[in-house]
């Protein structure tokens, strides 16, 4: 490594948003000695419990532990120079929160960590989830507030398959970046399995996007000029 910059920084709302579409990409960069980072905005306390928890607080604690185990498998928590930050904005209600603190959280992370690439959700949130959409808006606003010469490359999660919901299709962005993560498939599946409370999300993702287990796809926003 020639400097202290991150190569890739993910900014996402929930524990587990890092793993389905980017775990292999994270592993590849870490294997190349390129530090990566993750900013998670909520603790995931409003998600599914599958009967494993009896309160939002116990779910939040479990999901934090699941995320830690996932990042251990990915290798992010033990790679020198990599970083993980977990914020406590309210899960499921990001759209109802004051917008400026969300933007400032994203901007502060970008300016301090100086990533070459920032990855977040696309304008439609991939599935329309309000937290995904709000996170997109906050990260995009933070990115646009930077001087052009200081902006990192901006990537969104992307799928070759248009959304099933008609309302989400106008903002669908097909991928223009593809990463073969087959060499990391075993560890990626292990990392996904760390999120036990989100097993239904795992089943849904594999059913709808089986190809994205071995090939991770993104949309890179064109830079002006």
TrEMBL record:
Pfam families tied to this protein: PIG-L (PF02585)
InterPro entries to which the protein is assigned, alphabetical: GlcNAc_PI_deacetylase-related, LmbE-like_dom_sf
MF terms (GO), sorted A to Z: hydrolase activity, acting on carbon-nitrogen (but not peptide) bonds, in linear amides
Superkingdom as given in the UniProt entry: Bacteria
Name assigned to this protein: PIG-L family deacetylase
Organism: Deinococcus arboris
């Amino acid at each position: 490594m020639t400097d202290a910059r991150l190569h890739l920084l993910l900014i996402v709302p929930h524990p587990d948003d890092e793993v389905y579409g980017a775990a292999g990409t994270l592993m590849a960069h870490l294997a190349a000695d390129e530090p990566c980072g993750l900013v998670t905005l909520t603790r995931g306390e409003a998600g599914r419990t599958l009967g494993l928890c009896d309160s939002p607080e116990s779910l939040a604690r479990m999901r934090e532990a699941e995320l830690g185990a996932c990042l251990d498998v990915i290798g992010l928590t033990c790679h020198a120079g990599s970083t993980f930050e977990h914020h406590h904005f309210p899960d499921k209600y990001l759209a109802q929160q004051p917008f400026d603190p969300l933007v400032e959280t994203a901007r502060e992370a970008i300016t301090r960590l100086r990533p070459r690439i920032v990855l977040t959700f696309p304008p439609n949130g991939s599935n329309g989830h309000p937290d995904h959409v709000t996170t997109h808006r906050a990260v995009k606003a933070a990115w646009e507030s930077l001087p052009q010469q200081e902006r990192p490359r901006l990537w969104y999660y992307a799928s070759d398959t248009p959304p099933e919901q008609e309302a989400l299709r106008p903002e669908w962005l097909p991928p223009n970046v593809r990463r073969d993560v087959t060499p990391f498939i075993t560890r990626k599946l292990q990392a996904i399995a760390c999120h036990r409370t989100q097993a239904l999300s795992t089943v849904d993702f594999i059913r709808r996007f089986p190809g994205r287990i071995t090939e991770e796809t993104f949309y890179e926003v064109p830079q002006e000029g």
